[in-house]
Amino acid sequence: xxxGVMLPVGGSDGPTGEMPRWSDVRDVAQATEAAGLDxxxxxxxxxxxxxxxxVHGMHESWTLLSAVAAVTERVEVGNxxxxxxxxxxxxxxxxxxxxxxVSGGRLILGVGAGWHDPEYEAFGxxxxxxVGRFAxxxxxxxxxxxxxxxxxxxxxxxxxxxxxxPPPSRQIPILVAGAKPRMLGLTAxxxxxxxxxxxxxxxxxxxxxxxAFRAAVDKGGRPVTTTIGLIVRDPEQSPDTTDxxxxxxxxxxxxxxxxxxxxxxxADHLIISPEPMTPASVNRIAEAKRLSQS
Length: 294
Description:
Layout: E1 2-6, H1 22-34, E2 39-42, E3 47-49, E4 55-57, H2 61-70, E5 76-79, E6 82-83, H3 89-103, E7 107-112, H4 117-122, H5 130-145, E8 150-153, E9 158-162, E10 174-177, H6 181-190, E11 193-199, H7 204-220, E12 225-233, H8 252-264, E13 269-275, H9 279-293
Parallel strand pairs: 1-2, 1-13, 2-5, 5-7, 6-7, 7-10, 10-11, 11-12, 12-13
Antiparallel strand pairs: 3-4, 8-9
């Protein structure tokens, strides 16, 4: 089972609760690689409007991901997940081919339909028919990155003999995040990997979501890798242990046992959002991974 780490991208993700700088992103990415973990990921938002009215800024994630690819050598790189509404399908496919070249074939193209209405409204993006738009977008992107010449005429997107030149040097894997029936069907049809998030310890919701996903994959008749997003808090660095969400805040040994539990549930790849997002948190996760394998 692979273990990946979410990188700081905005808001209070910085090491002392402030907006992260590029140096913070780079340091966590390189610590992840040095610790022997498997992947690094960046969320994709323009901004986040919190329930208390505070608006949290975000760095542009694809630009950062390209920079991360250039300063690492081994770890897989991806978005968790790229919002289809922000970039048209042709541009996304071109970007993916370029970044996969920069990374030496390490990109996982993580994508989703988007969900956060306030950022859509702030930047004038349509919030209607998000999954319908995503279905067309995903088909075009998937066919392009797999080397097809794409003629497509849908309700929202149109292409005419579109292709990637230069083409990707390999078939770039696509990951789709989503849990509702239509998104699971699209995952089974077009994706190589699927993600559900965010969890601490496994719960009934996860059990139900995994069952629905496996049923969709069985119906689709093609293999799709299972990835699960976890939130893991280090109590020594983040002493606030109030019950404000699903974060797992156990000891390193308990975290190792949690990783084993997820492996036994059939997870192929865990993507951990650490609290805080620091190299020390990365090293703690890596220690737990080693214990889980001993």
